[in-house]
Amino acid sequence: MEDSFHMEIPIPPDNKGFILLKCAYCGELFKIKVEDLNDDGILNIYCPSCGLISEQYFTNEVLELAQIKIKNKAIEIVNEQLNNIEKQFKNSFIKFKRKKIKYEVEPVIYSSIEAMEEVNFLCFKRKVKIKPLLKVTGCYCPFCGVKEYGIK
């Protein structure tokens, strides 16, 4: 039996290479390029709306898929163990018939379409997609955390 397992959840980017993120504190949605998330030179990601650094920026869809994948892994382990017990008692006077537990269907994550505008942050010369209201009210740079106004 395995003591641990590895799970990957691919998050599809939109047609310009941005993936959707959600701040765990304020719930704001924003998009960052995949290569920026994978850049080791970027130590933290700041929420453009509240300016806080979150431990994770997964959307509800990603979290739901992760929970289903974990549940399916647990079902797989239970089914294997019940199968082993059934084999042990196959030629015994004790009868054990298992009922296979069914897996949950894993939803597909699609690149979502959000009403967001692409903006440039000059401090890091990187692009991000944010809600149009944040352009007017000002927002925090996701890469350095400085609040900027009049973003283009």
Model description:
Strand 3 and strand 4 form a beta hairpin. With 152 residues, this protein is α+β, with helices and mostly antiparallel strands. The chain is elongated and about 80 Å long. It is 26% helix and 16% strand. The chain contains three helices and six strands. The model has no long low-confidence stretch (mean pLDDT 89).
Question: What labels would you give this structure?
Answer:
alpha+beta, two-stranded antiparallel ribbon, four-stranded antiparallel sheet, 152 residues, single chain, elongated, 26% helix, 16% strand
DSSP helical segment count: 3
Mean pLDDT: 89
Terminal CA distance: 55 Å
Beta-strand percent range: 15-25%
Q: What is the oligomeric state here? A: single chain
Order of SSEs: EEHHEEHEE
Query: How would a textbook summarize the main sheet?
Result: 4 strands, antiparallel
* Uncertain spans: none
Q: Which bin fits the share of residues in helices?
A: 25-40%
Evaluate the radius of gyration.
Answer: 22 Å
* Strand order in the sheet with the most strands: 1-2-4-3
- For the secondary structure, the number of strands is 6
Shape: elongated
Structural class of the helices, strands and pairings? alpha+beta
Compact description:
With 152 residues, the chain is of the alpha+beta class.
List the topology elements.
Blueprint: E1 18-22, E2 29-33, H1 34-37, H2 60-88, E3 117-121, E4 126-130, H3 132-137, E5 139-140, E6 147-148
Antiparallel strand pairs: 1-2, 2-4, 3-4, 5-6
